[in-house]
Design goal:
- It comes from Methylocystis hirsuta.
- This is SMC-Scp complex subunit ScpB.
- By secondary structure, this protein is an alpha+beta fold.
- The protein has ten helices and seven strands.
- Among the domains are: 69 residues, Arc Repressor Mutant, subunit A; 90 residues, Arc Repressor Mutant, subunit A.
- Strand 6 and strand 7 form a beta hairpin.
- Helix 1 packs across helix 3, helix 5 packs across helix 7 and helix 6 runs antiparallel to helix 10.
- The longest helix is centred in the N-terminal third of the chain and has 18 residues.
Amino acid sequence: MPSMKAHRQDSAPPNRRVPRRDGDLLFDADLSDLPQAMRWREWMGRVEAAIFAAPSPVTRDALTKLVGRDCNFDDLICDIRDDLRPRPYDLVLVAGGYQLRTKPRYADAIRVLNNDARAAGPPALTPTELLTVTAIAYLQPATRAELSRLAGKEISRDVIGRLKGLDLIAAGPRAPTPGAPYAYVTTRKFLEVFGLASLRDLPDIERLEDEGLLERPQPEADLDAVLFAEEEDLKEHWE
């Protein structure tokens, strides 16, 4: 049993809320009648259960509806993570919400059963697909022509279709260029599968190359130069 911050609080919340009725459910978020330690443990259970049952990441705003107004939500999340430390899954912040994910070292055990269970992480992608979705993440919105220039070869409609089918990218605004082609953006699912809370968490290009996740196309292109040139071009295009 971890040392909980709740134990350091001596008194019950002074401002008890009237239990609210959500549909036919009378829900008491404050739990003021419980001793502090039991209240804290119940809040932890509610938040963990809600995240466990959700098909997608659950936002902080949604989860705070399950606990009392005097609950320090950040401390609660820390205690849940401490509880999960010996378990085969973690509580992570992805795509703007919280989600339970199996730890990477159990990926092989999950795959060996071949029962449609899926370990956390991105789907299997070809080098061209990975380069394309990565470029879109950094340059978005980006057209297929812009992606082709970056890759040094044509990015086919099949590649775009495959990434759209996986819900990693979506059509964004039409570019203000001849023919008004669609520009593509990444999706919430992209953040989920790559374990990113937001696009601000994208790693730098050097790290991707060091980890072998971003292979330079043949003939080899100066990826950094192309990326930064594209950023400037896009700013000019979209201003």
